[in-house]
Design a protein that fits this description.
By secondary structure, the chain is α/β, with parallel strands linked by helices. The protein is about 25% helix and about 35% strand. The strands form seven sheets. Strands 16-15-17-18-23-22-21-19-20 form a nine-stranded mixed β-sheet, with helices on one face. Strands 4-3-2-5-6-33 form a six-stranded mixed β-sheet, with helices on both faces. Strands 8-14-13-10-11 form a five-stranded mixed β-sheet, with no helix packed on it. Strand 17, helix 8 and strand 18 form a beta-alpha-beta unit. Helix 10 crosses helix 11. The longest helix is centred in the N-terminal third of the chain and has 22 residues.
């Protein structure tokens, strides 16, 4: 309280006393006890009113003790119950939170985690995933700028999220409390299986398998991949205490079109504690993408035979050789390869203006460039009659599709007429040309797209020499043939616009998020936010159907179908305003990642403790953990002096008191006939 305030309070006492004296004692003949009482009431009322006018600030000091937080995070995933540790986890949790000494020293915070992280003191151990990264991220946010210990009751087997070892704040100690049987059992496990989701019919697709062994004896195992009752691949694998992992690379035939479901399994003669992780199902969608490629030429040249061989390496491609005057054979062609076009190709160009078939134009010494300038406007040719050799230069910034440099700079030169070539419009250059190591800044292999139609240009003949050179360099035609196949694949792809576009997976693992996204476009191909999309999902076996609405997000609609059991499902997405629909199917595979473990991951939990200067404890060392927390002098309660300043005008009771004083004075005066 300031000096001015004290002086004003003293002045208020003088004023209140003076006014009371003047009103009740100045020239008064009767100075009875009633008069003294009334004067006292008047003095208090006036002094109270003056206090409200002065409004002094009242300061109140109080002591507050802030305890260090102790975060206890409990693994609520189903792997805890699979390892038969659910009762032990509950027992350990209760032992920690009920310890009187811990409660006196720490502010105990209870959390649970599986795929998510949330406050909880009850656990059902039914989580489908384990994400310890969520624990690190959330605790950093909740106890920001505080030094605090964390106890994690877990088996350490993470199934999703970033590697948790380095995600926790290193200044805050983490004490993992490891649950589960740490005894080493013989266990064979399919740790990971990598396979493309799609494969082409009559081709072979790769499967990469990572196997893991736990045990202390030499063991021989059989690995098989089966489809139904048919075994499509078989490998023998041996493990030992010094060889605990194995990697297999297999090629499976794509003989049938459609969704193909496979079962990978590993087994040995020994009995295992957990055989669930010996099996892993996977699925591949085999696509029949047969396409016919027409090579149109009026001359004979080795390039044509070499190009035909490269294209037909892919069993999905069929090449036909056509003369320029035989338009009837081009009805169902996916890609037109026009080899050295001249005026004889006019009917083909005219017909293709309506058909809009993607085109691969290859030029050379016999090409009529004036005619070619009239038929397309992506490249402008100003050529002379002189022949020139052009070397190639790979453009690494090319991004229309993934392509590797297969040694283009070392390939023999292509021959073409000398001149200048300039690009116009949307043209992407994969190979540019050089003349005796001098860059021309002109394209050698380029791609253009105009109103949905794709065109490729290869400006030079004698590419058959490229294929031979690639074989000399690599003892195989494979790299060059893959390069040609990617060019043809780009041209064979269509970009037709659909009003309803639905994105989904062909198969999902049990426990994964099953999300289907959709976009609906109006006639101008603009995203329609007012569309009403629904989906009907039908179990292929039970025929039970469920309907859902798709919810609008950012430029798409989506639905989450979590909760469906394993099996095959057919579904139809429908736009209610226009009745536009899309139908397809998916399958939920029986795969529970939380059942893959036979032991806790002690190694990683010890690494986590070491990274944060904490210590890992086992389930029978809970008392040691409690003593470690209690004996750590780093965690002390903080005593704070809380100073609260309150203006006197906020005291409602003072206003009530003034009103009572004035009311009492009035009644006393009334009772004694002094009014």
């Amino acid at each position: 309280m300031t000096t001015n305030t004290i002086l004003l309070l003293l002045l208020s006492l003088v004023i209140a006393g003076g006014l009371s004296y003047f009103q009740y004692f100045f020239k008064a003949k009767n100075k009875s006890n009633v008069i003294w009482f009334l004067a006292f009431l008047r003095f208090l009322a006036i002094f109270g009113l003056l206090l409200l006018l002065i409004n002094p600030i009242m300061t109140k000091n109080s002591l507050e003790i802030t305890k260090t937080p102790l975060a206890i995070a409990v693994d609520n995933s189903s792997s805890i119950s699979v390892l038969k540790s659910d009762k032990k986890v509950t027992e350990l949790y209760q032992k920690l939170i009920s310890n009187p000494a811990l409660k006196e020293k720490f502010e105990i915070q209870s959390y649970q985690f599986d795929a998510d992280f949330k406050p909880s003191d009850k656990f059902d151990f039914k989580g489908k995933q384990t994400n310890l990264d969520e624990v690190a991220k959330n605790l950093k946010s909740i106890n920001k700028n505080l030094i605090f210990p964390t106890v994690i009751i877990t088996d350490g087997n993470q199934t999703t999220g970033n590697d948790y070892v380095y995600r926790f704040d290193p200044v805050n100690k983490v004490y993992p409390l490891v649950v589960g049987d740490t005894t080493t059992f013989l266990d064979l496990k399919i740790n990971q299986l990598n396979v493309n989701k799609y494969a082409f019919h009559k081709n072979k697709f790769p499967v990469e398998v990572f196997l893991q062994y736990s045990g202390d004896k030499t063991t021989n195992a059989n690995f098989t991949i089966s489809q139904g009752s048919t075994i499509v691949a078989r490998e023998k694998v041996s493990f030992s205490p010094s060889k605990k992992t194995a990697t297999l690379d297999l090629l499976l035939p794509a003989d049938k079109v459609g969704l193909q479901v496979y079962k990978a399994s590993i087994s040995s003669g020994a009995k295992e504690k957990n055989s669930y992780n010996n099996i892993k199902n996977f699925a591949v969608e085999v696509i029949d993408q047969k396409s016919t490629i027409a090579i149109v030429s009026s001359i004979n040249h080795p390039d044509i035979a070499a190009l035909k061989r490269s294209i037909e390496v892919n069993a999905q491609r069929k090449v036909i050789l056509v003369k320029p005057n035989d338009i009837s054979q081009l009805q169902d062609v996916s890609v037109l390869v026009l080899y050295q076009p001249t005026t004889a190709f006019k009917a083909i160009f005219d017909n293709n203006k309506l058909a809009a078939t993607n085109t691969f134009i290859i030029t050379g010494n016999n090409t009529d460039f004036n005619f070619l300038n009239q038929q397309q406007n992506s490249l402008i040719f100003k050529m002379s009659g002189q022949r020139e050799d052009y070397l190639s230069e790979f453009q690494s910034q090319f991004n229309l599709f993934a392509i590797d440099n297969i040694g283009f700079e070392n390939f023999p030169p292509l021959q073409n007429l000398f001149g200048t070539v300039t690009t116009k419009g949307n043209v992407s250059v994969l190979l540019s040309s050089k003349i005796r190591n001098v860059s021309t800044n002109a394209p050698l292999l380029a791609f253009a797209e105009n109103q949905g139609k794709r065109t490729a240009f290869l400006l030079g003949e004698n590419t058959w020499k490229w294929r031979l050179q690639s074989h000399i360099d690599n003892q195989s035609f494979e790299k060059y043939d893959v390069f040609v196949d990617k060019v043809i694949q780009y041209l064979a792809s269509t970009t037709s616009k659909k009003s309803l576009v639905v994105t989904h997976e062909i198969f999902y693992n049990s426990g994964e998020a099953i999300v289907i996204n959709a976009q609906y476009f109006n006639k101008n191909y603009e995203f329609d936010e007012k569309a009403r999309l629904t989906i009907t999902v039908t179990n292929a076996e039970t025929k039970q159907a469920k309907n859902y609405d798709l919810l609008k997000g950012n430029n798409s609609f989506s639905v989450n179908l979590d909760g469906l059991s394993t099996g095959k499902y057919n579904f139809t997405v429908k736009e209610l305003n226009t009745n536009t629909s899309y139908s397809s199917h998916f399958e939920i595979l029986d795969f529970d990642i939380e059942k893959q473990f036979v032991n806790p991951d002690v190694t990683k939990l010890k690494q986590l403790a070491l990274q944060t200067n904490g210590k890992a404890f086992f389930e029978d060392q809970a008392d040691n953990l409690i003593n470690t927390l209690l004996e750590n002098k780093e965690y002390k309660s903080i005593e704070k002096n809380i100073s609260t300043k309150t203006p006197l005008i906020d005291w409602v009771w003072l206003l009530i008191l003034i009103a009572l004083l004035l009311t009492t004075e009035w009644f006393v005066r009334k009772y004694n006939g002094l009014l």
